[in-house]
Amino acid sequence: MRWLRENWLDFLIFVLIAVVAVGVVLYLVGLNPFAARPAPPPAPQAPAATAPGPAGEAPAEEPVVTVLPLPEAPPAPSPGEASGRAPASAPSPSEPARPSAGAASPPASPGGVYRVAVGAFANPENAARLRQALADQGYPARLEPAGSLTRVVVGPYATEAEAMRVAEALRDYAPQVYRGEGPAPLSPERVYLQVGAFQKRENALALAEKLRGLGFSVVLSEDGLHRVRVGPVPVGQVDEVKARLKALGLEALEVR
C-alpha cells in the first residue's frame, strides 16, 4: 500500500494504457461490450376473433325461406293404386309452415296433367332455394312465373291420386294440387320480357337480384334452362321497359 501511495500516478497511467489497449483489441475483432442487446422478438399472438357484424344489406321484400326438413319423394304408385281416388283436399297441421304468405292459388284448366304448387315468392332467390331443396330430396320440382311471383311446382303427375300423395307428403308447405300443362296464360294486356337463359342457377339468380335492385319485377322459369323474365309488363309500357333494359346491355324477348 505504501508503494501505491507513492506511485499512484504511475499506476493510474498504467491502468489507462491497459484500458485503451483492450478497447483497441475489441474494436479490431468487432466486439462492442457496451452495445445494447437487441430485444427478443415478441411472441406471435393469435388474431382476436371478431364477432360477425350485420351484413348492412337493405331489408328484403320478404323473409328468407328456412327450408323445412323434407320427406323422401314417394315411390311411383302401382297400377292398382293409380286408379284410386284420393280425398278432395290434403290434411294440413293446425299451424302449417308456409314458405310464402302471399302464395298465389293456381287455377285449374280443362285438360292436362296434375301438378302440386308448394309456394310462390316475390324474391326469385327464395323460390330457387326451395326448388333446390325439393330437388335434392328427389322431387321433380321446377319454377314457373305466376304474375309478379315465382311459383315452385312439383310434378307433373299422370293422376290426381298420385299428385295428392305428394301433396300429403309436403303438407307443411300448404300445397295445392291443380290440373294443367302450366300456369294460366297472361291476359293480352300483359307480357313478360325474357332477358336471359342460363345453364347455371347462380348466374340466373345474380341477374335477377341485380334487376330487382334496380326496381324491376323479376320472375324465374325453368324448362332445362334457368330463364330470367321481367314482368308482367303492361303492353303500353313494353317499349319503355325494353329501352331501360337495353340501356343495361340486355336484349328483351317478349313472352306471353
TrEMBL record:
Keywords: Membrane, Transmembrane, Transmembrane helix. The chain crosses the membrane at residues 12-31. One of its GO terms (cellular component) is cell septum. Residues 40-108 are annotated as: Disordered. This is Sporulation protein. The keyword Membrane applies. Residues 108-185 form the SPOR domain. GO terms for biological process: cytokinetic process. It comes from the Bacteria. The keyword Transmembrane helix applies. Residues 46-70, 79-106 have a biased composition (Low complexity). GO terms for molecular function: peptidoglycan binding.
